[in-house]
Amino acid sequence: MSVAARRCTAPLPVPTPAGSVTVQGVGIDDTGGVATTSPPPARTRPTTASRVRRQAVLALAVGQLVAAVALSSSGGEPGGPGGPELLITPAPWTFSLWGVIIAGCLGYGIYQVFHPRGDAPACAAVGWPLVGVQVGFVLWLVLSATAPVWTTVVVLLAMVVLLAIAYSRALALRRSLPLFPRTLLLATLGLYTGWAAVALVLNAATALLDAGLPAAGGGATAWQLAALLAVVGAGVAVVLRWRARLFSTAAVVWALVGTSVGAAGRGAPLLAGLAVAATLAVAAFAVWLRWNDLRTRAELALGQ
Description:
Layout: H1 3-8, E1 14-15, E2 21-23, E3 26-28, E4 34-36, H2 48-73, H3 97-114, H4 121-146, H5 149-172, H6 179-210, H7 217-241, H8 246-265, H9 269-303
Antiparallel strand pairs: 1-2, 2-3, 3-4
Helix pairs in contact: 2-3, 2-4, 3-6, 4-5, 5-6, 6-7, 6-8, 7-8, 7-9, 8-9
């Protein structure tokens, strides 16, 4: 075969708008450089398992909202109708945090169903634990209005375990999400985890009250002082476990502030004063812990 014939069978260069040419996937720019090109990756369709998980997260987020509205409309409230309250029960406005948490779950549920990034590693990892948490919330609301208090403690314990799993996974895989959904997910799970951890201890104390421990007088102050220390311990555990992350720490501090106001309103100044001191101590500890972690990271980065 002649040279002319061989030249005729060579692939023809294709001009590009940037002033370069491409020959069978090889780009030659106008400075003489050569760079391979590849087609953009094809978008994969969600699997059946992924669609089921994502739709379950959204459906249960709606279920949380419906259950909370239904219970509120019927005049019910967590802890069951009637009966004495703990001296350290948080002030009523404290429970408005549930509305923020429910709205966060609903917003995240909508995002991960309809957005292409709803199958990101973080979303996949937290999906089923979050479904379990939301089922637990609906069940907790129903039991709080219809069943003995101790049943709500069991449900809250399971919720806290699942929240710890979901929150830890979300933090570990947070970089797989863009900024807005990442913040939405971490804020929702952080608030949920911190608030539920404190609620677990308070529900357990309410179960002890329901079992016959004194509701007023010196005896009530004595044993609820121990319960308050347990609440503070749960808050410190949350701060330590997740290294003073903003939203989980904020939920703990919010609950402690509400506890101090609630105790003051029920004529328990000793418990109220101790709750205020605990709030300040936990907040200061969280700031110190976070600052220490950031300083350590900076020193390691400079050392490298």
